[in-house]
Structures are given as structure tokens and as C-alpha cells.
Amino acid sequence: MSKTYTVEIHHQGGKYTIQVPEEQTVLDAAQASGLSLPNSCNAGICTTCAAQITEGTVEQSDAMGVSAELREQGYALLCVAYPRSDLKVETEKEDTVYQLQFGQFQKKT
Ligand code: FES
Predict the structure, then answer these.
(1) With contact defined as beta carbons under 8 Å apart, do 77 and 60 qualify?
(2) Which atom of ligand 1 is nearest to the CA of 27?
(3) Is the pLDDT of residue 104 over 90?
(4) Do 5 and 22 touch, CB atoms closer than 8 A?
(5) Which domains does the chain have, with CATH numbers?
(6) 100 lines ligand 1 (CB under 6 A)
(7) pLDDT tier at 106, thresholds 50, 70, 90
(8) Average model confidence (pLDDT) across the chain
(9) How many other CB atoms are there within 10 angstroms of residue 108's CB atom?
(10) What predicted TM-score, i.e. pTM, was given to this entire model?
(11) Under 8 Å between Cβ of 86 and 53
């Protein structure tokens, strides 16, 4: 029998609590419950769905769009993130992830 975890999603000032089975991605479960979150490729590449896990752990071995270092800091791609505990998630971290990963290569204007 698969486990189901409670995931609290903070999105655009709202707080949503959903149940996510261990074999479903957080993004899928959110969409299924009527909460539409940013997404595009659904394959762990584009980072449109980037979020920060503030509590708990996810399995996201397909998350190619975020570096191992950022994953350690809790950043996750929800389209390929499977819950491995109850979670708290802050959505819409695409810009933050971009800055952290690529910001150092850009010239400040
Ligand atoms: S939707 Fe592209 S990385 Fe998740």
C-alpha cells in the first residue's frame, strides 16, 4: 500500500493543504485538486515549476533544472517531486532559482 503525505502549499498569498500519494508528483496532485500552479515542460528541465520545500523531503531524481546545491537548500521542481514526508512548499521560486544558479555569471547593470 502506498503512503500518502500531507502537503501544505503556500501560493500567491494563499495556503492550500492537499494529500499527495508517494507515487504522485506534488504538481500533479495540486492540479488534480484544482490548484493551478505554474508549469511548462513537466519533465524537470525548464524550472517554471520551481518551489522551495521549507519543511520535509522530496524525491526528485529527474530534476535536471536545479543544481545539487540548490536541491540541498530545499529548492525543488514540483513536476518531478515526489513527497517522502509531509511537506511545506513555497511556490513560484523560478526567479530565485535562476538568480542563484546563473546570477553570478551576469554583469550587474
Ligand atoms: S514544469 Fe518544467 S521543470 Fe517543472
Answers:
(1) yes
(2) 4
(3) no
(4) yes
(5) 4-104 (3.10.20.30)
(6) no
(7) low
(8) 94
(9) 4
(10) 0.92
(11) no
Pocket test for ligand 1, best of 46, 67, 93 (most atoms within 8 A of CB): 46
Q: Where are any strands of DSSP class E within 14-59?
A: 14-21, 50-55, 58-59
Separation of CA 78 and ligand 1 centre (Å): 7
Q: How far apart are CA 40 and CA 74, in angstroms?
A: 21
For range 26-39, the mean pLDDT: 97
Helices within 1-109 (DSSP H only): 26-32, 68-72, 94-102
Mean pLDDT of 11-27: 98
Inter-residue contact 76 to 44 (CB < 8 Å): no
Ligand 1 and 49: CB distance under 6 A: yes
For the record, the C-alpha cell of 109 comes out as 547593470
Give Cα separations from 23 to 9, 20, 26, 49, 109 (angstroms): 18, 8, 10, 18, 45
